[in-house]
Amino acid sequence: MAVKTIKLTVTIPVPINRRIEEVMAKQHKGRSAVVTEALRIWQNEEARQMAVQQMIRGYQRSPETNEVWEDFKGAILETMGTKERG
What is the reported pTM? Predict the structure, then answer.
């Protein structure tokens, strides 16, 4: 099923338009495809940043203890077949 589209007119700085033209030539894509891909990348990055901020707030509310980190370190060493040298 085809995605519905709209025509949109925007004003952008000349250097950004030059970059769009460069990407169009390099990737053999039309302007709409290049701009759509750029907006998808921006949208995904924004979602990733929001998720990171949520994780940071979660760790700030409930920080991990040294015991958790020692357990984690032990599991990694066990997985690697290495004994801690002390």
Answer: 0.65
